[in-house]
């Protein structure tokens, strides 16, 4: 099959979509395809990590995109403020759509891969998109009829499902990344696939050293970690955060004690430390939990308050034995996971993860084949029409 050109669109919230884009970029280029540009949706509250931009040898274009609004302490999500703030920024998003439109016209991709960026759906609804669109994210599992949301949250379940359908608008294929296999849905556009992990993780050897790894999506939770440390100074904690203070004022490393250090986000360092820690405490991001499971690390998941998606992740992961759900950063609770965590169950999970590339490339090649066949049919129809018109003109003359 001939080489094709791709453009990526990545929702910049958290780390998961970013690392998934890196993994797909490496996969496609290894199979002889070209990724010509990466569009990243960002906000005033989120910086695009350096580990992301340095992975691509192509332009990385940042555009203003809808995002969550947190409280003043950067801990919980405020849904009302999120809606209002995004409405007030509507003109910024219109400018972003113009940038996206110009970028796609310039690069003329065969396929756009959308990592849950809502502006691509807006673009597809207002433009005749020249490319096929693949939407990929773990959130698309919410569209599967066999997925079960946690009980008692009907409004949130409806809202996240509605938003996920919105991001998938205009897509020709939706790849739902899942921690476990689910039979194929009736929706032919929806495919369930294994977690998409970076290739570096497959080369790591899992060991166990005496420290807890902590990943904080919202920097406001650092105060809770410091508070816990003061009560438990003998527990060694290695933390990663998106804090601007740590990155800019402390050059990526803030060491408060021999047993407490905060690092700025760094993909290589984070994975290395995950392979060596005895357990992970995180804010229930899908990617972090999946990586920890692959490395046989129990996880204590503390969803960001008001972040229903993370709440679903934590409940889903705890149900299949990845670790435990918690409402606060009382890190001593992870000791319970260490006592009862069963590593043997992850053998089947790893086999599931290892099958991603084969399934993904099969789906991509199938879509490419459909697109090529459609173009051939259009050429034949155009040629037939031209021949018919020529014949008609000859007869009339």
Structure description:
The structure is a single chain. The protein has 397 residues and is of the alpha/beta class. It has two domains: 5-196 and 355-380, Rossmann fold, CATH 3.40.50; 200-352, Rossmann fold (3-Layer(aba) Sandwich), CATH 3.40.50.2000. 44% of the residues lie in helices and 18% in strands. The chain contains 14 helices and 14 strands. Strands 3-2-1-4-5-6-7 form a seven-stranded parallel β-sheet, sandwiched between helices. Strands 10-11-9-8-12-13-14 form a seven-stranded mixed β-sheet, with helices on both faces. Strand 8 (212-216), helix 7 (222-231) and strand 9 (237-241) form a beta-alpha-beta unit. It starts with a strand and ends with a helix. The mean pLDDT is 85.
Provide key terms for this protein:
397 residues; alpha/beta; Rossmann fold; 7-stranded parallel β-sheet; 14 helices
Radius of gyration in whole Å, from Cα? 23 Å
The name of the CATH topology of the largest domain is: Rossmann fold
Main CATH class of the largest domain: Alpha Beta
Q: Report the strand count.
A: 14
Supply the CATH superfamily name of the largest domain.
Glycogen Phosphorylase B
Rounded average pLDDT: 85
Shape: globular
Order of helices and strands: EHEHEHHEHEHEEEHEHEEHEHEHEHHH
């Amino acid at each position: 099959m001939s080489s094709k050109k791709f453009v990526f669109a990545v929702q910049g919230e958290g780390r998961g979509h970013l690392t998934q884009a890196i993994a797909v970029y490496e996969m496609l280029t290894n199979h002889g395809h070209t990724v010509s540009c990466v569009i990243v949706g960002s906000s005033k509250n989120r910086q695009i990590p350096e580990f992301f931009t340095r992975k691509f040898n192509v332009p990385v274009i940042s555009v203003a995109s809808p995002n969550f609004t947190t409280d003043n302490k950067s801990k919980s999500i405020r849904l009302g403020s999120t809606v209002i703030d995004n409405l007030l920024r509507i003109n910024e998003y219109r400018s972003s759509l113009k940038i996206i439109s110009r970028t796609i016209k310039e690069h003329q991709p065969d396929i756009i891969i959308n990592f849950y960026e809502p502006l691509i759906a807006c673009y597809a609804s207002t433009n005749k998109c020249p490319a096929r669109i693949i939407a990929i994210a773990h959130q698309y599992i919410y569209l599967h009829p066999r997925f079960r949301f946690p009980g008692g949250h009907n409004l949130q379940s409806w809202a996240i499902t509605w938003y996920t359908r919105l991001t998938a608008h205009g897509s020709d294929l939706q790849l739902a990344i899942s921690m476990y296999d689910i039979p194929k849905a009736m929706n032919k556009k929806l495919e369930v696939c294994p977690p998409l992990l970076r290739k570096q993780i497959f080369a790591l050897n899992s060991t166990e050293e005496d420290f807890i790894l902590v990943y904080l999506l919202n920097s406001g939770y650092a105060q809770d970690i410091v508070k816990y440390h003061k009560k438990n100074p003998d527990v060694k904690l290695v933390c990663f955060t998106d804090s601007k203070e740590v990155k800019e004022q402390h050059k990526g490393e803030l060491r408060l004690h021999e047993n407490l250090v905060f690092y700025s986000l760094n993909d290589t360092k984070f994975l290395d430390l995950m392979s060596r820690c005895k357990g992970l405490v995180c804010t229930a991001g899908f990617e972090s939990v999946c990586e920890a499971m692959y490395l046989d690390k129990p996880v204590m998941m503390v969803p960001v308050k008001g972040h229903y998606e993370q709440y679903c992740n934590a409940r889903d992961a705890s149900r299949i034995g990845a670790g435990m759900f918690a409402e606060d950063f009382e890190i001593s609770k992870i000791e319970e996971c260490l006592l009862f965590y069963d590593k043997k169950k992850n053998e089947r999970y790893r086999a599931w993860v290892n099958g991603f590339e084969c399934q993904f490339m099969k789906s991509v090649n199938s879509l490419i084949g459909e697109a090529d066949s459609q173009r051939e049919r259009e050429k034949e129809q155009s040629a037939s029409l031209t021949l018919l018109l020529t014949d008609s003109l000859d007869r009339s003359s």
